[in-house]
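We give this protein:

***
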Amino acid sequence: MKKWKKLLRAGSITEVKYPEWLANPVVVKKKNGKWRVCVDFTDLNKACPKDSFPLPHIDRLVEATAGNELLSFMDAFSGYNQIFMHPDDREKTAFITDRGTYCYKVMPSASTISEQNVRGPAR
């Protein structure tokens, strides 16, 4: 599948042998009618600790900018792919395809822990 080849070329995933954790890819229909290939990390998400610090409300964020002379905005495009996983945790994101078994070297976008790590620094 094109998605896996692209991730492999970009260095976002790597081949793995005999992982303890193994997830399956799933195909999900998007609102525009096209299809998206994802990895189902349901079991991994259940095993991960939950973040007890949710994002603040938008009104508090806006209030915090009052009185400042300079504001900065960042676009987190491909934010998950910019955070490298600790080598000890990579195999926990293993998934199987018709071409082999791979794991993520960067945070996968469909895991609970990824969302917490991407939002965390923004607090």
The first strand starts at residue 13 and ends at 15. The domain at 1-49+77-118 is CATH 3.10.10.10 (HIV Type 1 Reverse Transcriptase; Chain A, domain 1). The two ends are 37 Å apart (CA to CA).
